[in-house]
Amino acid sequence: MSTDAARADAVHYYWRPGCPFCSMLRRGLDRRGIVTVEHDIWKDPEAAAVVRSFANGNETVPTVVIGSTGLVNPSAREVAELLAAEAPHLLPS
Question: Number of H helices and number of E strands within the chain?
Answer without folding.
Answer: 4, 4
